[in-house]
Design brief:
Blueprint (H helix, E strand, L loop, with lengths): L1 E4 L1 H9 L4 H8 L5 E5 H7 L7 H19 L2 E5 L5 E5 L2 H6 L6 H9 L5 H10 L4 H4 L4 H14 L6 H11 L8 H14 L11 H14 L5 E3 L3 H13 L5 E3 L4
Parallel strand pairs: 1-2, 1-5, 2-3, 5-6
Antiparallel strand pairs: 3-4
Helix pairs in contact: 1-4, 3-12, 9-13, 10-11, 11-12, 12-13
Length: about 250
Amino acid sequence: MKIYLDNNIFISLENGSITPSNLEELVGNKIDKIFYSASHIQETLEIKGETESKRLERIKKRLNTIEIITKCNYFYENLDNQVFEQLVKPSKVLETITEVSFGQSAMKSLINLFSEKQKEEIRKSLNIEPSRINNYSPNEVVEHLNKKISQAGQDFTFLGIIETGVSFHPDGKTFGRSNRIAAIFEILDMFGYWRDKSNEKSNYARLWDSSHTSFATNCDYFMSDDKRTRNKANVVYNIYDVDTKVISSKG
C-alpha cells in the first residue's frame, strides 16, 4: 500500500502530534511506501526563522523528517508529464529544485490573474452561494457549476473553461493532467468551493495543494489535515475517476 502525505502531515510528524504508527492505524493496513515530491521541498523553502541560521536549521530539520518518514521514496514528474518513483534524498532534490516543468512555472504566473474583488463579482454574476455549494458531493459540485454557467448564458462547461484556456496556451500540447488539476483548484476556489482564506500566500500555497493532489493519484491514500484541500481533491478524483482515498490524520 502506498500513501502520499500533505505538507501539514509532515509538520505534525515532526512536532510529534502524530507518529508513523498512527498512519497505519488510520488506513487499517500495512504501508509499504510513503512518498514525497518536489512540492514538499518547495514548501520547505518557505520556512521562516528569526535569523538566517535558524531558518536554515529548521529547513534541515524538515528535510531530515521527510527523509526518515519516506525513506527517500520520491515522485518525479518529467517534462512529458510522466511520473516516476525514485530513491532520492530530500537534500538532493533541494539542490536541483530549479528543475521544475515549464507548465508548472506557467501556472505560477497565472495564479494572481484575478483579484479577490473580481472573483467575488464572478460568483455574484453566476449566483453562486459558497455556503451552499460546500455541502454538495464531488459529483454534484461539477453539475451545479455547469448549471450556473449555463443559466448565465455561457456556452461552455466547468471543464470547458479549463480546456479553452489550455487551447490558448503556447505550451498547451504538453499541458498534462497535473497542470489541469492546478487549474481545477484555481477555478473551484474562484467559484467559492471550499475557498481558501485570502492572504498574500494563499494563491501560491494552493498551487502546491493541487500538486500534492496530483502526485497522490499514484497512491492508495492521500492524507491531508486541510479540509479545503481534501474537498477540492475529492472533486478532482471524481472528475478523473481516481481511486485514491482522501483522509485526515484526525480520522
